[in-house]
Amino acid sequence: MRLLGNLIWLVLAGVWLAIAYVVAGILNCLTIIGIPLGVQSFKLAGYALWPFGRVVVGRPGAIGVVSLIGNVIWLILGGLVLAVLHLVVGLLLCLTIIGIPLGLGSIKMARLAIWPFGKAVVPAGLVGPGDTVVVGPLGAR
């Protein structure tokens, strides 16, 4: 099911969202201060390209002033645009029966596009019952 979901996602939205993240990453890497933002954007491009079978969890050690500052700068320098792109893609996917689960997943991924620092993308099999799952392509396992 994950393979089928990822293939449908790849064709309908994944490629375009991944390209948007890569473009944002390249633009952010043009400045010294933007390099950490660019690296984060490249990580999110991989998740946007092939999301099923992976979930986003909070990193306990990364919640602090540095993550807050990174998230605020990220929001200003591209995160808001990427989140709106996820919302638009999600709404367009929800226009078809097959696209509804994918659209809901894209809408959930908009939260990650706004505030990515302090979170990590991990394989779904590594998340235990006591772990806090932030968001997945179709919610928690």
Briefly characterize the structure:
With 141 residues, the protein is mainly alpha-helical. It is 62% helix and 9% strand.
List the topology elements.
Blueprint: H1 2-28, H2 35-49, E1 54-58, H3 65-93, H4 99-114, E2 119-123, E3 133-135
Antiparallel strand pairs: 1-2, 1-3
Helix pairs in contact: 1-2, 1-3, 3-4
Protein described:
- This protein is mainly alpha-helical and 141 residues long.
- It has one domain.
- It contains 4 helices and 3 strands, in the order H-H-E-H-H-E-E.
- A 3-stranded antiparallel β-sheet has the order 2-1-3.
- Helix 1 packs antiparallel against helix 2.
- It is globular, with a radius of gyration of 15 Å.
- The C terminus is likely disordered.
List keywords for this structure.
141 residues, mainly alpha, 3-stranded antiparallel β-sheet, 4 helices, globular
Tell me the major beta sheet: 3 strands, antiparallel
- Report how far apart the termini are: 13 Å
Q: What general outline do the C-alpha atoms trace?
A: globular
The SS-based structural class is mainly alpha
Nearest-integer average pLDDT: 85
